[in-house]
Amino acid sequence: MRTVLLTKPRLPAWLARIRQRSRLIAPVPDADGVLDWREVEDPAQVVLPPGAPELPLKKVFFPPSETMLRYAYRGDRAAVTDTPPALEPFVVFGVRPCDALAQRIADLVFLGDLPDPYYQARRQAATIISVNCTEALPECFCASLNNALTEAPGSDLLLTPLNGDYLVEALTAKGEALLAETADDPTAASEADLARKAEVAAQTAAQQTRQIDVEGLTELVRAAYHDEEFWKKQAEACVGCGVCTFLCPTCTCFDVRDDAVSGRGLRFRCWDTCQFADFSKEASGHDPRAQQWQRQRNRICHKFWYSVDRCGVISCVGCGRCLRGCAGHSDIAAAIENLRARAREEKPVTADE
Amino acid sequence: MPNQTDQLRETCKRLLESGEVKKVIGYREGRAPYHVSPHFAETPEECDALVLTPFCTQNLVRYLRGLKPEDGKVAVVVKGCDARAVNALIAEHQLTREQVYLIGVPCQGLVDVDKLAKRVNLAQVQEVRVEGAQVVVRTAEGEQPFPAQDLLEDCCLVCEYPNPLVHDQMLGFEVAPRNPEGVDAELERIEAMSPEERQEYFRRAFSRCIRCYACVRTCPLCYCTTCFAQQNKPQWLPRSVGTDENEMFQLGRAMHLAGRCVQCGGCDRVCPVNLPLRLLNAKMAREIREAFAHVSGLDAEKPPPLATFDSQDRDIAEGNNYDR
Ligand code: SF4
Ligand code: SF4
Ligand code: SF4
Asked: Would the CA dihedral through A212, A218, A219, A222 be positive or negative?
C-alpha cells in the first residue's frame, strides 16, 4: 500500500479534487456554529476540533431516522415499496480513528449473518479518510483500549499531521484507489516519516490521563452483575436520557414504527436506547429493566461483556462522548475503576472516583 | 473564617449525624474540575466529597422526583434558580416544604464550559472562581482574570434571583443580582427579527435535534412520567426525527413550561446540539409575566397561571377576547 507525504497547503486542493469526483462529507458547522456530518461545498468549511466531534460518525451510515418502506392498501392487499438508499460512491473526511474503529464494531451488528441493506448500501458506497489526533481531550481514553491511534482500523486512508505535512497512508484497496486518482504528484514517504508518525501517536496517547485496565474486565462486570447496591450507586445521577447512547459511536439500537393515515403510510426506524423507560417494556406491561440503575447496568454490561461474548470485541472505543454529553457527568472509565475497586473489596465511597 | 465548602460539609455532617435528614444531595468533583456531578451522601464520611464551584450546574431539585413522605427529609443544595424550582414544585403539589431541608447558596453565576474552552486549554484548568465582575482561571502557569460577561452561562448573565428565595440555612452572604432590570439582550435580538428570520433561526435549530430527550429528563419541572413526545398510546407525535416533528416537540415543551420554567438553564446546557432552549423558555416566561404578572418559583402558594381557572378572571368576567 502507498504511503505518501502531502504538504498542508495542498490539502484543500486535494479535497477539492475529491469533491469533483464524488460527494464529500465532513464535520462542517451550520450558521450557528454547530458541527455535524454535512456535505462539503468548499474545503475551507471543514472544522476538525480536538478529539471526536460531538456527533458520532455512525450518523452517516445509520441516520437518527430513516424510511424503510412505503405501503398502500387496496382492499385487503398492500402494495409495498422498499426504499433502500441507492447511493453513488462518497467520501467521508475528517474521521477520528476512534470513530473509524467504532464503525467496524457497528458493522458486526449490521453486517452479520443478515446484512442490513440500508446500512450496507451506505457502507459500501463510502471511503473513509481518517485524520489522526495530535491533541487528546481530557475525556479521551482510546489508547488504553485499542490500536486506533497507531493502526486506525476501519479507515481507508489515514492522515497523520507531521509538523507542516500530512503523512497519508492507504490502508485498504479503496483508499489506495482514491489516492491514486486524486493525489497530485505526491512525495513518497520515508522510514523516518513513519517513525515520526509513531512519535505523534505516542504523544497523543501520553496526553490521555484517563486510562482503563481491560485485563479481565468482562469477568469483573459479570461478577458484579447481581450487586444491586453497586449499580444503584453508579446510576444515582443518571436522569435516563438518550445522550450517552445516542452519541456513542458503537451503540446501534433502533425502533421500527409506522406512520400511517387511512391505509397508506410508511415504516421508518429511528434511534432508540436501552436508557429510555419504554425500551424493554413488554406487551404484558412487564419491564425486565424497570429501574434506571438496571438500564445503566445494561449499558455497561453490553459494552464490556455482551459484546465480547457475541462479537468478540469490547464495544467502547474510548471516545469519551458519553462523559462529555452526560447531564450528571457519569464517567464510564471511572465506572470500570469502581468495578475493580469492588473486586478488591474496597467499597468505593462515591459513585465515580 | 471557614470557607463555604467547609461550612457546607460541616452542615451536612451535622444534619446526617443528628438524623434530621436521611440524605444530602450536593455536588462532587469528577476527574476534571469542570466535571461536577451530583453527589448523594448518606453518611457523614460521604460529606467530605461535597464541593461548591462555578461548575455546580445541575439543578439538584430534579433528583427529588419520586421522593415519598416515608423516605424522610432530604437536604438539597440550592442556588437561586434551584430554590425557585422548589417553590414551583410545591405550588404544583409535587413536593411539600417539610420533605426538604434547603441549604441555600447565593450564586455568583456558573461558568460555561464551552465559553471557557474557547479561551483556555481545558486540560490545563486547575481551578475557576467567580469574583464579581471577573472570572479567575488558574492553570499551572498562574491565574488569569476574564470578564464575567465572557465566561458565565447565558442564563446566569440574565439572572434576576441569584439568592435562594427559600432556604433553611444560607451559606455565605447574599450577592447582588447581575440583572436586576430583567434585560435579556439575546432574547431582544430574537424578538427584533422579522418573522421570516426568526423562523429560519429556529427551524435551523430544530433540524439539529436528535430527540435524545436530555432536555426533558434534566428539567426539574418536566416531571411527567412519560413526556407527551415519547408517549405511545396515544401517539401524539411521531418518533421520527425531522424538523417538523422536532419543532412540534419543542414548541409543545415550551407551552408546557410556560409560567413554570425557572430558567436554571438545565435543558439548554445539556443539549448536545446547542438548541437555544433557554431563549424559547425565556420568551414564554416573558409573555406570562406580561399577561399574568406571574414569575415562576417566587411564591410556593401561587400555581402557574395556565394551570388555574378563575371564573372571576378579568377576561372572562368582562367577556373579553384575549387577542393581541
Ligand atoms: S448516563 Fe447520562 S447521558 Fe446516559 S442516560 Fe443517564 S443521564 Fe443520560
Ligand atoms: S461508551 Fe462512551 S467512551 Fe465508549 S465508545 Fe461509547 S461514547 Fe465513547
Ligand atoms: S437535548 Fe437537544 S437534541 Fe436532545 S431532545 Fe432536547 S433539544 Fe433535542
From this structure: positive
